[in-house]
Please model this.
Amino acid sequence: MTEYNYEQRMISLLISTHPGWRYEQRDLPGLPQWWATRYCPLRPDQRKAGARDVLGRTSLRRLASALARHDEILHNLRY
Model:
């Protein structure tokens, strides 16, 4: 499997697992390469609990892990 195919499969998986986010790749020096941005803004109590509107990570695997943690935070708030 090529790196491009892997990335496309991972993005498809992220979209189906975490549909409330927009995913993009950015090539900016010194910044994470993969980003997820929420479509709907969070409430103040959700932000206080640690949830974020934007997540950036160096790999899709790390982004998937951050999104899973984010879901756990919202689940604990009964979102």
